[in-house]
Structure formats: structure tokens, C-alpha cells
């Protein structure tokens, strides 16, 4: 799902590695024996997974001359299931060009269970927008940047990782077992590679997480159809995205119609009733109705989405980022920005700890830097969105209240500021007090007017963890 970069060592450094493996000499010590840089053996870092998290991590590692960077990705041309929304701050922060952004969404149409519609976006400035992208375009762009810095790619699937028992207290290497794919062949060639440090960016079903015993987490199933609709209907979605709420489209999330390059992505997701996902998908198509009528389904996608952090995100010299770590927000289901940010942050902290490739970090080092800084920066965001989802996606009454609240310009401004820039700004205490009163009033009204949710038993399938 994600990819890693592979750099071949020189003949001299290979000899150095061979020697150090028998003498227990570190690569730095081996380099001291001869000042010739050709004899300096680099530490080898593997990034498993080539999506935004892995690509951004590889880009940072590849710029460090004291580190060999290997990026594993099983499908370099893969169109990954994803809504594709990115915040404005990501465009600037990660230096993304216009060619990566298919559509600039400036309006969001929010539709309640009873069909009440609220258009939000009036508070946006002329140069503000939500970017809509295709993952196959975005991922490739960031990967290619990493390659330009010297990262090398292994087009292969990591099948397992051999973790030495003493990896937390020694510099023992990890052995990555993988299937490498040759051009023109679908059959993989079994291979192995020894590395000093691993960044797991291989998604919700992470094999790196399994190898390091990261623990299980609950997950949603997201289902999306890419639908090519007539040009006259596509014009409606030029700068418009839609969100539908109601127990018909999801008992605990929302359905969406997001514009892409020349089509729309229509989808939904659920944790509570995963076996019924196709039923919910039909409902979102029905709710969109005439706006997508006459469209042709050109691609069907489904994928697990983590619902919370992994219990363990670092073990020894293995660190998780992106979906593999559980970095997807509740309520909005956003993951691209947090994947890219966590990949970059983890790599930057690890590079600093390695001091130019002179030493390897410990588990404690990585936890005190990358994990602590990420949690401090974004932990409150996850907590707030988790609470909002529990309140406003729990039943149709709450969903009606949610849509009505979004009529408030204050709510719109705070929401867009938080999403576009990953910070809450301009909050007014008096407006916050007024908003609390409005929320209570909307909830009372919503519960009084909404139809009851359809009952269903929580299937065993929905209680599984990965």
C-alpha cells in the first residue's frame, strides 16, 4: 500500500558492514578507521508504504547523506480509495503545485435526514478553498520528489518482518521479507533485506504494525464509487462538494459527493454496521438523485479506515505513521494531511536523533520527540472531533441539529479555519456562549422533528479489530 526507498551501498561500505557485523563495530566507528568517505557505512532506513505518509518520510530521509533510504511500494500506479480532500495549508506547507489539485471547493452543501439543505462557505476568502485530488496523482508527485533527493524504490510487497529479540537494547538489524515485482510480470520474486530502522506507512492493514505488535484498533469501512456524469451535471460540482447525513446513508458517519478531475467520488463509511456498507452506498446514490443521474461508474473502491491511535506506535527502532498509526480524525474522516504531517515529523525527528547518520535512536528517543510532539500538536483535535462525532452522528435528531447549526456564520468560520489551517482562530467567548445555547435549542428541535433511526443489531463482523 505504501512504498520504500532502496539505496545500494558501495563495494567499500558493504565490506565495512561485513566487518562491523562480526566485530560489533558501529558504522561510525568503521568510518573512523579510515577517513575516506567511501569507507563510511551508512545506516539503512526502510519506509514501508508509498502514500503521503511514506513519501513525505522518505523525502526527508533521502536528503540526509548519512542515511540510505529504501521505499517499498507494491503498486506505484495504484489509485487508492480516498475522498481526496486536502486542506489549504497542506498545499503551501508541502509545496504542492496546481497540477495536483483537481478541483478547488469553495462551497459545501450539507443535507439533513429530512432533506434540509445548508450551503456553507460564505466565510471563505477569495483565495481560500478545499483542495480535491486523486491519490494516484498526489502520491506520485511526492514520491518523485523523494526519488530526486536520492531515495530509491523497491516495487514490492512486504510480507513479513523478522524482529530480533534484542532490538530494543542493541543495534541488531531487522530483516524485511518481500516480493519484488519485475516490469511486465505480476509474479513477485521473494527477497530479503536487512535494515537498521523501519517507518511503517503501510495503511490500516499494516504488516509493519503486526510485526512490531502495535496492538489492534477498531476501524470503519469506507466505500466509494467514481462516477463519470454528464458535463452539464458536472458543472454543478465545479466548486461544490456535498455531505449527506442520516441513518439511511450511515449510522455513524456521513455520505459524500466530492468532485474530481472529470468525475465525482460518491461514497460513505461506517464502523457500527460494516456488512451493510453496500446498502448505505445505494442510499447515497439515491439521495444524490438527479444530480448524478446518467452517470457511469468507472471505479469501485473500498478500504478500512482506523478509528483511533494504535496502542503502540513505536517499538524499538520501528515507528508507525499515517493510517498505520491510526491518524484519521473522527467526524470528518480526514487522513491525508495527518499522514503527510506525521511522516514528515517522524522523519525529521529521527534524522535529528541520528545526528547525520552517526548513531541510531532508541525507542525512548523516538517517543520523547516524534510521538510527544505529534500528540501535543494534534491530540486535542482528535479528542474534539471524536466528541463531535459521538454527539452529532449518533441519531437522526442530532444530525438534524448538526445541519441547522451549520447555518451559523460563526460555526462556518470556526469550522473552516480549523480545517484549512489546522488551528482554531478568532474564537469569541460571547459567541461561544451563544453557540452553546443554540446547540441545545437545535438538539431539542431535532429530536422533536426527526424520524427514529432504523434498528439493527451490531453484527459480529463490526466488532472485529485489525
Automatic annotation (TrEMBL):
SUPFAM superfamilies: FAD/NAD(P)-binding domain
Phosphoprotein as UniProt keyword: no
UniProt keyword Metal-binding present: no
Classification via InterPro entries: BchP_ChlP_pln/prok (IPR010253), FAD-bd (IPR002938), FAD/NAD-bd_sf (IPR036188), Geranylgeranyl_Rdtase_fam (IPR011777), Geranylgeranyl_Rdtase_pln/cyn (IPR011774), Geranylgeranyl_reductase (IPR050407)
Single GO term (MF): geranylgeranyl diphosphate reductase activity
EC number(s) per entry: 1.3.1.83
Function in brief: Catalyzes the reduction of geranylgeranyl diphosphate to phytyl diphosphate, providing phytol for both tocopherol and chlorophyll synthesis.
Name listed for the protein in its UniProt record: Geranylgeranyl diphosphate reductase, chloroplastic
Pathway annotation from the record: Cofactor biosynthesis; tocopherol biosynthesis; Porphyrin-containing compound metabolism
Family, similarity comment: Belongs to the geranylgeranyl reductase family. ChlP subfamily.
Top-level taxon of the source organism: Eukaryota
Catalysed transformations (reactions): phytyl diphosphate + 3 NADP(+) = geranylgeranyl diphosphate + 3 NADPH + 3 H(+)
Pfam family, one: FAD_binding_3
GO biological process: chlorophyll biosynthetic process; photosynthesis
Position of the signal peptide: 1-17
Origin organism lineage: Eukaryota, Sar, Stramenopiles, Ochrophyta, Bacillariophyta
Provenance organism: Seminavis robusta
Residue ranges constituting the FAD-binding domain according to the UniProt record: 184-355
The entry's keywords: Chlorophyll biosynthesis, NADP, Oxidoreductase, Photosynthesis, Signal
